[in-house]
Specification:
- The N and C termini lie far apart (203 Å).
- It is elongated, with a radius of gyration of 62 Å.
- Helix content is 12%, strand content 49%.
- Helix 4 packs antiparallel against helix 5 and helix 5 runs antiparallel to helix 6.
- It folds into 6 domains: 87 residues, Immunoglobulins (Immunoglobulin-like), CATH 2.60.40.10; 98 residues, Immunoglobulin-like, CATH 2.60.40.10; 89 residues, Immunoglobulin-like (Sandwich); 86 residues, Immunoglobulins (Immunoglobulin-like, Sandwich); 100 residues, Sandwich (Immunoglobulin-like); 53 residues, no CATH class.
- With 561 residues, it is mainly β.
- Strand 31 and strand 32 form a beta hairpin.
- The chain contains 6 helices and 39 strands.
């Protein structure tokens, strides 16, 4: 019996100890029973125990879906962290704490919402007086939308309210909208258009419960009554100036654009100012000018036609219709325009060959300089002067010649009585060849003449010659050889058109030449002038006085001198 009592007392002690322990072991959870979390935020649930040194924890959802969160337990505390919070976290979460044989459990509900941005206001177009406009108020990414209320107000006057009470079966972020159509008036300018949205979730903090957006109304009037003022007139002369001023009514005040209508009816923008001034007008400036008043609502145009009439002007070219120049000289052709303030010039040859000259234009004058002038410059040149749309052209012909030196007389050897000799007459660097005529005379009689017609188409500087072979006699001594060249161009004004060279004939006797003349002496005799050769011959024959016949020859030479 005593043994049974001991066992009973021991058992009672154990039960009492368990009862005491179970009374001391408690579990707490924070927040208490519910948490409202914004989608995308970070949320932590904390579970802790009292009266247990080494508890163990576990977390689960009430419907045993995945936690979609991280668990961290340390000591008598366990934390469940959801970062970021999403639709998958909208559950009731259970925290279970075990201490020995004791176990306790707490529940907390996680409710989510999305109300991240202020409403957005959109207009179907600019507000124009008298024209319907639709205003749309959008609330983006809202959840749960069945708790959403929206109001649209104009100057504290409620235009429309809307409640989205239909139940939602799907979990998603949605954009909800409210639309109102009204007709703006002038008085609406400056009034406040307010879009207000509320998410009716009691547990949400006040700062998240209501959002609103305000926009100032600006009412516009399309451009109208566009007018143009022209000074001095719509009919002008070339070189005149004109000022055109344009105005247009509207709200906001229209911007003025000036354009010119092109041939294809497109518009070429000229100015963005109310006043358009055109100076030094040309005939191509004639046309239809368009003024447009433009603002955000629309545009209104007015057209005006300007007519620019031709102003006469003249063109002159100098030194005249023709200029004659010698190859190698400098030639200056001048083109002048009168009756035009700012002409433009161009030069060309009539056959469109290169100018081969330098053009200089200044003011109303243009100059073409050919320096030195060569055969490639022998053309008819055309100067074109342009004033506005009008063009005038003047031509000038450049004719060239080359006749720079007197002819040159040459003999094939010393003139000896009875021996044939060739005499040539050369005309150097002559042009044009087909106009050249060469005559060779002995005294008054023409020995030979030649015209070079066969060279009509040659365009080059050439040396032409005339040759003749004759047999001199002693009677020819003292006569004069004349080489005469003529450049027969009557239509050209230049001097000289005729050049000549002369040379006196000296014929040596046959025997004296054979016996007494060395080749060196004969060359000296041919090249010397009239007196020096004679003196040389006298000295030479004086030294040979002991030879037969020398005295008579010296006497003959002295008598000639």
């Amino acid at each position: 019996m005593p043994g049974k009592m001991v066992v009973i007392l021991g058992a009672l002690n154990v039960l009492w100890m368990v009862f005491v322990v179970s009374q001391a072991f408690k579990i707490e959870i924070f927040p208490k029973s519910k948490i409202i979390a914004q989608i995308g935020a970070s949320v932590s649930l904390t579970c802790s125990t009292v009266g247990c040194e080494s508890p163990s924890f576990s977390w689960r959802t009430q419907i045993d879906s995945p936690l979609s969160a991280k668990v961290r337990s340390e000591g008598n505390t366990s934390t469940l962290t959801m970062d970021p919070v999403g639709f998958e976290n909208e559950h009731s979460y259970l925290c279970t704490a075990t201490c020995g044989s004791g176990k306790q459990e707490k529940e907390i509900k996680v409710q989510i919402y999305s109300f991240p941005k202020d409403p957005e206001i959109y207009l179907s177009g600019p507000l124009e007086v008298g024209k319907l406009v639709t205003v749309t108020c959008l609330v983006p990414d809202v959840y749960p939308f069945d708790r959403l209320e929206m109001d649209l107000l104009k100057d504290n006057q409620n235009l429309k309210s809307q409640y989205f009470l239909e139940p939602t079966e799907k979990k998603s972020l949605e954009t909800k909208s409210l639309e109102v159509t009204f007709t703006p008036t002038n008085e609406d300018t400056g009034k406040d258009l307010v879009c207000r949205a509320k998410l009716l979730v009691d547990e949400i903090d006040v700062e998240y419960e209501k959002r609103e957006t305000t926009e100032k109304l600006q009412v516009y009037i399309a451009p109208r009554d566009t007018v143009i003022f022209v000074n001095p007139s719509t009919r002008l002369q070339e070189g005149d100036s004109v000022t055109m001023t344009c105005s247009s009514e509207g709200l906001p005040a229209p911007q003025i654009l000036w354009s010119k209508k092109l041939d294809n009816s497109n518009l070429q923008l000229l100015s963005e100012n109310a006043t358009l001034t055109l100076i030094a007008m040309r005939m191509e400036d004639s046309g239809i000018y368009v003024c447009e008043g433009v603002n955000i609502i629309g545009r209104n145009r007015k057209e005006m036609e300007l007519i620019v009439q031709e102003k006469s002007f003249t063109v002159e070219i100098s030194p005249g219709p023709q200029v004659v120049a010698q190859v190698g000289d400098s030639v200056m052709l001048t083109c002048s325009a009168t009756g035009c303030e700012s002409p433009s010039f161009s030069w060309r040859t009539q056959i469109d060959s290169p100018l081969n000259g330098k053009v200089s234009s200044e003011g109303t004058t243009s100059t073409l300089t050919l320096s030195p002038v060569s055969l490639e410059n022998e053309h008819s040149y055309l100067c074109t002067a342009t004033c506005g749309h009008k063009k005038l052209e003047k031509g000038i012909k450049v004719d060239l010649y080359s006749f720079p030196r007197d002819p040159e007389i040459e003999t094939s050897g010393v003139l000896v009585d009875g021996n044939p000799v060739t005499i040539s007459c050369k005309v150097p660097h002559v042009y044009p060849l087909d106009r050249l005529e060469i005559e060779l005379l002995k005294g008054e009689s023409v020995m030979k003449s030649k015209h070079f017609f066969e060279d009509e188409h040659k365009k080059s500087l050439e040396t032409k010659s005339l040759e003749i072979t004759f047999v001199p006699t002693t009677e020819d001594t003292g006569k004069v050889l004349v080489c005469q060249a003529k450049l027969n161009i009557d239509e050209m004004e230049f001097e000289p058109k005729q050049r000549q060279s002369t040379q006196t004939i000296y014929v040596n006797g046959r025997e004296s030449n054979k016996d007494y003349f060395s080749p060196e002496l004969l060359m000296l005799y041919c090249a010397s002038s009239l007196i020096i050769p004679a003196i040389g011959m006298i000295i030479y024959f004086a030294r040979k006085a002991n030879m037969k016949g020398s005295y008579s020859l010296v006497e003959a030479q002295k008598s000639k001198v």
